[in-house]
Amino acid sequence: MKKHILRLLCFALLFFAGERTVYSQVPETGNWLIYFGNQNFGNNKWVFHNEIQYRNYNFVGNTEQLLIRTGVGRYLTENNNILSAGYAFIHTRPLGEMDGILDVVEDRAFDEHRIWQQFWSRQNVGRLVLIHRYRFEQRFFGNDDFRMRYRYFLGANFPLNKNRMGEDTWYLSAYNEIFLNSNQDDNPAIFDRNRLYGAIGYQTSPRLRFEVGFMRQSTNNPLFTRNQLQFVIFNNLPFGQR
């Protein structure tokens, strides 16, 4: 089974890395390299969140965004139901369209500072693990532009070779996340974007797992709707553990 999965992943890498469109100077499919860290501390009642995402318009090297997010959360119940808040920095090189051609507009690159609050919850339905995340963001841009956004994330992990997620587990992962803007005069579009994702993952231990997946991001402007290949690392090693 492992050999077939590896062959499928190699084929997907070659296919999506080489995909091009005659209407764009950038590939239709980009690549996101993602690290998520959640470290428990304070007798496992608190969690420190740390996250880095390096997003590319191509397989690697043509940067779309660099996102750095951090925050602190509090468990409301044992090992579940986390209420948290934090800060994120995002540097973006946006796409622009001219005469039907999409390309990076270097002189429109911008930085964003973001404050966020969220509630995260996990539930088990048989072998299936469901994850709910509700996030509220306050977004600050360099031109004194301020926006607010609401996000809802519904994810699922399904173990393949075991009854529960744990050590040496292959699993399928999927999620859908919708982004909604607040209704402001300078930001009238309520719908911002939607992300639909599917992946194959491997959990080496209860504290470390990896995923390779494919995400379709639809935006309020269909011209900028894109596909993203994703390589993700999840690190849940608590502070003080060797």
Explain what this protein looks like in three dimensions.
Strands 1-2-3-4-7-8-9-10-11-12-13 form an eleven-stranded mixed barrel. Strands 5-6 form a two-stranded antiparallel ribbon. The protein is built from one helix and 13 strands, in the order H-E-E-E-E-E-E-E-E-E-E-E-E-E. The protein is mostly beta strands. The chain has one domain. The radius of gyration is 19 Å and the shape is globular. Strand 11 (191-205) and strand 12 form a beta hairpin. Mean pLDDT is 89; it is low at 11-23. The two termini are 32 Å apart.
Pick out its properties.
single chain, 242 residues, mainly beta, eleven-stranded mixed barrel, two-stranded antiparallel sheet, 1 helix, 7% helix, 64% strand, globular
Number of strands: 13
Binned, the helix content reads under 10%
Biggest sheet: strand arrangement: 1-2-3-4-7-8-9-10-11-12-13
Uncertain segments of ≥5 residues (pLDDT<50)? 11-23
- Which whole number gives the mean pLDDT? 89
CA radius of gyration = 19 Å
How far apart the termini lie comes to 32 Å
Number of individual domains: 1
Backbone shape: globular
Largest sheet: 11 strands, mixed, barrel
Order of helices and strands: HEEEEEEEEEEEEE
Pairing-aware structural class of the strands and helices? mainly beta
Measured by DSSP, the beta-strand proportion falls in over 45%
Number of helices: 1
